[in-house]
Amino acid sequence: MRVTPQGLYCVPGDFFIDPARAVPRAIVTHGHADHARPDHDHVLASDATLAIMRTRMGEGRAGRTQQVAPMGEVIHHNGVDIRLVPAGHVLGSCQVVLDWQGSRIVISGDYKRRPDPTCLPFEPVTCDVFVTEATFGLPVFRHPDPADEIARLLHSLRLFPDRAHLIGAYALGKAQRLIALLRQAGWDRPIFLHGALLALCGLYEGFGVKLGPLEPVPLPQKRGAGGLLAGEVVLAPPGAEATAWVRRLADPVICAASGWMRVRQRAKARGVELPLILSDHADWDELLATTAEVQAPEIWVTHGRDDALVHALALRGIKGRALYLLGRGEEDEEPAAEPVAEASA
After folding, report:
1. pTM value > 0.70
2. I need a surface site. Which of 32, 65, 181, 252 has the fewest CB within 10 A?
3. Domain limits at 96?
């Protein structure tokens, strides 16, 4: 593998993994925009990732030719054996396993280790080189039990029945996981969605992920009127709380679901009343456990706090290398990353 301005490049296979700009041949680990870029000539990915790319980019920009790689099936290309295995990050997310001349490298993309009813769980693969993220690569980041965070949300709903609860949740992965966790906790009422979340929730349903009754946030009967959805759960992209759109809701409790809510200053800066620490990435302990589990003598770190992780790996006798790939982590899990159209429902 070679690090190039476009991203990770497999020399014998002549393809890129999650390239940052359009290339002739790309393997895409998942549908977040810092990994899935438009206008490649040929894209190989899981069926769900390709569907997500078409939904977000349009058919014409999701790869001029598109090749579905079924999970676990080996694809031979230029002497390289390519296999996709689940990464546990979002629907369709994969690790890329490459075997060539007796050596194996695994590019994990983004991943989490917690159970998630909306996607397949992470599958560890032993290898010679493991390429990991480090979004939450500091010891301070130890994610709580998601069930406890949902319990805090349900408690607030009981405490403030006259207020809507507006939760900022990233449109791909976080929103659907939050809905599924609420359903597991017994919330069977309709969940109301900002218009920017509707298409991807529908896509999840199309792939067999049951999300229960979902409704678009209604328009007020009179222009400028508010007071809607008291006692209900409303999901919107991060940033919606700062737009005029929010005025239609009944005195909303501003919530945000993100691993970054562990940092109180982030929550305070955004005016978040109820921070929910709910991440789709591995925390510090899970990063270390994963790097031990795959038994790789060499670990490459693509983004996040690579310095802390590389140091911790060195203490364990593992060679670490920071790759400094451009464009990683720009969108996923970033609290204010999702663009919001105020007119959207």
Report:
1. yes
2. 65
3. 2-140+280-322
